Amino acid sequence: MAVQNARNKGTGARRGGSGRRRGRGRGRGQGPDMAKIVLIAIGVVIFLICVAVGLQSCARSGRQDAGSETSTEETTTEPETEIEAEITVNGIQIHGLTKSEAMEKVLADMGWKMKVTFGDSTEELPNLMEANVDAVIEEALAKKESGDYTVQTDGLDDAVQVEVKALAAKWDVEPKNGSIASYDKSTEKFTFAGAQTGKKIDQEKLASDITAAMKAGEYDKTITATANEVQPEITEAQARDNFKKIGTYTTTTTTNKDRNENIRLACAAINGTILQPGEEFSFNKMTGNRTTEKGYKPAGAYSNGVVVQEPGGGVCQVSSTLYNAVVFAGLKTTERHAHTYEPSYVTPGEDAMVSYDGYAGPDLRFVNNGKTAIGIKASISGQTLTVSIYGNPILEDGVTVSMHSEKIKELDAPAPTYVEDPTLQPGTEVVAKAATPGSRWQTNLITKKNGQVVSDVLLHNSTYKGKAATIKRNTSGTVAATETPSTESAAAPSESAGESTAAETTAAETAAPTTAAETTAAPTTAA
After folding, report:
1. Could you tell me if 100 and 212 lie in one domain?
2. Do 114 and 53 contact (CB within 8 A), yes or no?
3. More confident residue, 26 or 327
4. Coil, helix or strand for 504?
5. Domain boundaries, position 108
6. What does the pLDDT read at residue 55?
7. What CA–CA distance (Å, rounded) separates 101 from 168?
8. Residues 117, 163: one domain?
């Protein structure tokens, strides 16, 4: 009964309480309602903080994605799958491995250490089987079937040839023909050197030995390369017997001592030069910069159409004389330039202008396209300048070459230069210096066989500027009083020959060119 009563009281209390809920809400029930509000407020704050943090995180993530999108795409790679089938390659189980792991395992089992030796040199070959190992594993993966696979040497011929050719290029020794080797300036004679035997790797045998070792699985084998002797085409005795002057040319200089001294220095710089087969000659490199420190004297040179005194004036006559000898000898010209104005010591179109400031400038270059070395002799005696090429003839017997140049167009001279002369009558003009027209020349290379022309081809064209006339006149309207000239007055200096400068170049000598006899030579191409 006590329990039952208690229950009844409780029930009654709940129910009674229900009847008094409004009253308690304004009294004792105020505490719990405030707690709920506080909890809700805290929850809202936490929610807002989470939202803010989430937004910041998203923003950072977005910026990172935008900045590294390309990088992620480039670096992301699909993970390699493992080989599921029971597969062996050369007896090596690769089940459960990735392709790269399988490659590494099979290649390691091969123990590739193949080498090739020749004399004191040893070269290790790259693993030529690697490509075929890769192909076999790819085939096994494509079939996805269990099985045993063996790596073959099929299709490796090209790879073997690449390695063999590389080794041959390193170890081959070209034979050397007997030819001149040095020049004795005291005796003015060239000395000779004996021929040398060459060596050529037997590429066919080496390729066969490498392939056989791979087929036998001898991947660590050391193979010895063999070579065959290669005899020179020309012995020392033959070189001596055939040695001769193969090209020569002579020009006449002026009486200007300083200019002739410059010519002598340039001749000394190239005299005795020996050019090996395939080697290129450079006039500027041989003489270097023509400076007063080297002894070169100021001499007439054209600069912007005006004759000036410049160290080295006159050396263009040496380069032009050399050029003719080079052409007659059959050597291959690789660089040649015409002067700014027509030269007179060689036929226009057959000159070779040079200029050098120590770094660059127009040059005369040619290559020894013969089979033996050639030598150069250059000298000046009095006013006679001669340059000759010595060596074994470049072409067969009976072949000669020569140049033929002709003017194909005359160009107008520049506008005249007027000079005021108050001693002249007003309106009077006097030509103090006549104009010289410019010109364009065509030079052909004539090749003859036993005296008969077999080739007549264009070698190059050359264009030369004209020179303006100098005209005196009086535009003042009055005539100035003149004084009686002194009998001791000095004569005006004459305009001496002009030579090369970096701006404009020519050699306007009064000496006529001297034509050399034709010699054995080949058609050349001049720049």
Report:
1. yes
2. no
3. 327
4. coil
5. 87-230
6. 54
7. 36
8. yes
Residue 503 lies in a domain: no
C-beta of residue 158 within 8 angstroms of C-beta of residue 252: no
Residue 527, pLDDT > 80, answer no
pLDDT per residue as tens digits for the range 336-387: 999 999 999 999 999 999 998 777 889 999 999 999 999 999 999 999 999 9
Average pLDDT score, the chain: 82
Q: How many angstroms separate the Cα of 467 from the Cα of each of 254, 340, 341, 393, 462?
A: 22, 10, 8, 42, 16
230 within 8 A of 201, measured Cβ to Cβ? no
CA–CA–CA angle 330, 334, 338 (5° rounding):
100
Name the burial class of residue 120, with classes exposed (0-12), middle (13-18) and buried (19+) by CB atoms within 10 angstroms of its CB. Answer: exposed
Burial class of residue 387, CB neighbours in 10 A (0-12, 13-18, 19+):
buried
- d(CA 371, CA 178) in angstroms, rounded, equals 10
SS3 402: strand
Report d(CA 444, CA 204) in Å as an integer.
47
pLDDT tens digits for 267-279? 999 999 999 999 9
Average pLDDT over residues 420-441: 94
Burial of 425 (0-12, 13-18, 19+ CB in 10 A): exposed
Tokens of residue 94, six digits = 């690769």
Q: Give domain status of residue 137, yes or no.
A: yes
Least confident of 20-34, 149-163, 418-432, 471-485: 20-34
Tell me the CA distances in angstroms from 387 to 191, 245, 268, 321, 327, one per residue in order.
19, 11, 11, 6, 12
What confidence score (pLDDT) does residue 54 get? 61
Three-state secondary-structure class, residue 356: coil
Contact 447, 520 (CB under 8 A): no
DSSP tag of 523: -
How many domains is the chain partitioned into structurally?
2
Global pTM value: 0.66
Q: Letter for the amino acid at 122? A: T
Do 369 and 452 share a domain, yes or no? yes
